Amino acid sequence: MGKRKKSSRKPTAPRKKDTLETNFTCLFCHHDKSVSVRINRKEGVAQLLCKICDQRYQSKANHLTEPIDIYSEWIDAADAAEKEATTTRRPVASSSRPRAPSVGSDDE
């Protein structure tokens, strides 16, 4: 038996694991990278906190939860709360009393 040929492939560098963001833009004060997400997988809790305006959000977490998931849940919860607030408001200028008839001028 003969010798094996060497592979012509170049050695590849080990792949760098891409890390996901843990700091995001706040929905309320609009500061970049002011919102941080911390996940405690042991307790099953994720917390989101804005360093500038002190907005907070807390959610359940599991072993697959990532910071972007918690940020997305926060956005959805804020949208739902805003939508609920606008649909439950009563119209400002409505009245149940009939309008009085307009009175004509004294041109007679």
In short:
Keywords: Metal-binding, Nucleus, Transcription, Transcription regulation, Zinc, Zinc-finger. The protein is of the alpha+beta class and 108 residues long.
Word description of this protein:
This protein has 108 residues and is an alpha+beta fold. The chain has a domain of 60 residues: N-terminal domain of TfIIb, CATH 2.20.25. Helix content is 20%, strand content 18%. It is built from 1 helix and 4 strands, in the order E-E-E-E-H. A 4-stranded antiparallel sheet has the order 1-2-3-4, covered by helices on one side. A hairpin with a 4-residue loop joins strand 2 and strand 3. The longest helix is centred in the C-terminal third of the chain and has 22 residues. It is elongated. The termini are far apart. The model has no long low-confidence stretch (mean pLDDT 83). One of its GO terms (cellular component) is transcription elongation factor complex. It comes from Lentinus brumalis. Keywords: Metal-binding, Nucleus, Transcription, Transcription regulation, Zinc, Zinc-finger.
Explain the layout of strands and helices.
Elements: E1 23-24, E2 35-40, E3 45-50, E4 56-60, H1 67-88
Antiparallel strand pairs: 1-2, 2-3, 3-4
Instruction: Report the β-strand fraction as a percent range.
Output: 15-25%
Task: Give me the CATH architecture of the domain at 23-82, please.
Answer: Single Sheet
Helix content bin: 10-25%
Q: CA-to-CA gap between the ends?
A: 126 Å
C-alpha Rg, in Å?
30 Å
* Class by SSE composition: alpha+beta
InterPro entries: Elf1, T_Elf1_sf
GO molecular function: RNA polymerase II complex binding; zinc ion binding
Subcellular location: Nucleus
Pfam family, one: Zn_ribbon_Elf1
